[in-house]
Design brief:
Blueprint lengths: L1 H24 L7 E4 L7 E4 L8 E5 L4 E9 L2 E7 L3 H4 L7 E6 L3 E4 L1
Antiparallel strand pairs: 1-4, 1-7, 2-3, 4-5, 5-6
Length: 110
Amino acid sequence: MIDFINTRRAVLAGAVVVATLFAAQAPASATAFCAIKETSDGFVALRAAPDRNAATLVRMKAGDEVMLRAGRRGAWQEVLYWPGGTRLERPGASAGRHGWVHAQLIDICG
């Protein structure tokens, strides 16, 4: 019985270590720049809060960029937003616009 308890503790401790390592990698996504997907209505709303009824801050278009932030609430991703290409045209001119976007509307990240 003692061996079973020690084995169980070792497995649980290992699981905690693995979970901690994966959680430690999460902030790396804060530097991923992603494109906004094309939609049938031509825009994706950047919201003030992670809710479809929250105020629309900006109507983003396909090709605009967002930088993923650490916040995630359900299907909503916290982001910083730049209109298409402006992040590279004027480095340091703006820190981007903070908001929330539905994660399914974020395209390729790189």
